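Sample intake sheet
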Amino acid sequence: MNSRVFRLHSTLELPLDDVHEFFEDPDLPVEIKDIEITRRNNTLIISSVAAEENISKYTPTAQLKASVTENRVYENEDGEWQETPPDDGPGGGGSVSSGSGGGGPSWSSLGGEQEAEQEVRSKLIEYACFKGDRETVLQNTELQYPMFEVLCNLARTSDKGSLEAITAVGDDLEAVRIVDGEDRPARVKVVEDPRESDNGGVDWRDNKFIN
C-alpha cells in the first residue's frame, strides 16, 4: 500500500528533554528500524533508518526537523513549572527592589522586622519547535508516511501546538488534526484553487483550444 502525505502544517512545541525521552523507546512503524537524532547548532534533525535492506544507503530517508529555542518557565505555588509568572499574592504590590530608594523608608527601619519577599524561581528550558509546512517539518519522500506516523505519536504527547495534515492511504484521502495532544475531528474539504481565479488567469470553461 502506497501512502503519502500531501499537505501538512505544524505548530508543535515540546521540551527538548521530552523529545529525547520519547525516542528512547518509541513504538516505530514496521518500515522503520531505528531513529537517529542529531543536533546542528539550533536545529534538531530526527532521521529514520529503513528496516528493509534493499533501500540504498545513498537514498535519503524521511526526517523530522525542528528549531531549538529557549523559553523561561516559572515555578508556581504547587511546585509546577509554567510559562507565565505566577500572580502577586494577596495585597498586590510590586516586587521589592534591591537598590536604595530616593527618600522612602528602608525595610530595616520598620520596627526592626524584615519582611523577605519570596523570590519566584525560574529557569530556562530548551524547546523543540516543529513549525512550518511539510517540506520544513517532514523532509524526503522515502519512508515519508511511516515518519509522519511517528510525528503524529509525538504530537499526542505535546500539550502545546497543533498538527494538521491531509494524507492518502491507498485510494482514500484522510484528514488528521491533533491539537494540544488530543485528536480532533477533521475532514477533507475541496475548495477552488485561487490561482484559477479570473485575475489574469485562464478561462478553462471557454477556451477555444479545449474541445
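Comment: Confidence is low (pLDDT under 50) at residues 89-101, 109-116, 207-211. The beta strands are 3-15, 32-40, 43-50, 63-75, 81-82, 122-133, 138-139, 162-169, 172-179, 182-183.
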